Amino acid sequence: MFEIRPYRPDDLPALHDICLKTGDGGQDATHLYRDPKIIGEIYAAPYAAFHSDCAFVAEDAAGVAAYILGAPDTRAFEARCEAEWWPALRTRYPDTADVPSWKRTRDEWDAFHIHRPPATPQAVVDLAAAHLHIDLLPRLQGRGIGKALMDRWLAHVGGRAHLGCQAGNTRAQRFYELYGFRRIEGVGPRSVVWMAIGA
Hints:
By secondary structure, the chain is α+β, with helices and mostly antiparallel strands. The chain is 40% helix and 20% strand. The strands form 2 sheets. It has a 4-stranded antiparallel sheet with strand order 1-2-3-4, sandwiched between helices. It has a 3-stranded antiparallel sheet with strand order 5-7-6. The N and C termini lie far apart (34 Å).
């Protein structure tokens, strides 16, 4: 049994945990990080802070094990993060631009990202202004919960959205394509697969 419900502030530790445990192409990234919170500070916590109305979780008897988060206006979200989210994190995580890229650890890459957050390609935003992140721990995968979360979130934002997926995470890409997302070709680095729905 599981329940899909709106996010509550006391769910934030679970968001951090899920983000870390799905942070390596959908697999557990715990072994890759010295700081277990840094990845969640980029991909989960700002959505809970700025768009809690667009955040839903799936909870079973053991606790929250999945979430879907996002922003209805990507450019406005990026601007708000620059003004209100990244500055505090930049004091906690020093810039790692002086570390050669081939030597950076995952923590150092995420710190680099905090100081230089990449903007979503304009061609992607033009197709669908909203964007989302969805992650499920293994115990909730393959049970229709991802679809239920997606149904709930897209109904909330009006049915149009985009997302970026790590190129190596082929399982997630198959799920998105079966759900109805289509690939957006020719944008951004090859390490990210951009997809949109309702556009």
